[in-house]
Amino acid sequence: MGTEVDEPAARESTVALAAAPSLIPSRELGRVTIGDVARAAGVSIPTVSKVINRRYGVAEETSKRVLEVVAMLGYESSLVASSLRRRRTNVIGILVAEFESFSAELLKGISAAAIGTGYELLAYSGLATGEDRTGWEHRSLSRLAGTLIDGAIIVTPTVLMPTTSIPAIAIDPHSGPGGPSTIDSDSTGGARVATEHLIGLGHRRIAHIRGRGDLASAQLRESGYRDSLEAAGIDFDPTLVREGGYQAALTEAATRELLTLRNRPTAVFAANDMSAISVLNVARELGLRVPQDLSVIGFDDIPEAARSTPPLTTVAQPLHELGAQALGMLIRRLDGQEVPRHVQLPTELVIRSSTGPAPAR
To answer: CA 176 to CA 292: how far, in whole Å?
Structure first.
């Protein structure tokens, strides 16, 4: 089959488009179609299809002209149609229950690591429709797998997923390691360091605001807190532990209970930064000074931690690195390589202004 040259070779497409606005689709809203590209470039629809799908049989000058029009009009071929033809979309799905500070930081790490990989990213919130929280990841995968995404990074999935329809990596799954390959941070070790920091400042009555009871990482943080108390010879006091559930309303109520006790705690270790920031707000409302009257420490090191008043001492998870490594693991799986079943990254204490020596009693 010869090279297609039926279009006038002398046509100067860029000049023609600039000089003849009528060649550009009149509708400013809506999707640009392959027919729009064909009309603007003065070629047939099959010719445009050959060019964008990199098939042989189109003259170099014609191909160049079509690509100029594609770029000028912002034409995108159908992702679903392309995936059906090629069985690949080169798109990776980032599935989250909801968009909040923790998932946003993971997304930043994933996005930075995706540069130069040849993959595009699709961020999808599984609870955007207000459906039941449990099992959102199964619903998300069933909607996206196969035609829209080649693989998925699932952030804090709620249920164990022994198998998935496409390659998947789970970040900080609720049930802990299991199912697809997982990656998380050292929650137990981080909680120990946080509690040891407070003990080293002379605190003995250290309260703990728990995270969500169904999250393995929250359970591990409470375990690390209790381990450090025991190692320091401090009796565990169940009256100093309250449910926060990573929810502002629950955390605020729990903090009021703790800080109005006759023998209130001198320090609070919260299971995440947003809970710790809620503790700071309640302490301020009650007239307690931080850290002079109360020390507060969180977990995660989201951007809000450094901007709180006072800046929050916390245990930093390497959130960007978690996202970047999850992406690398998934791409290796997509390439047919073996990846570890579980990867755990270290945490680090970040000391700011919300912790200080225990007040004299």
So the answer is: 37
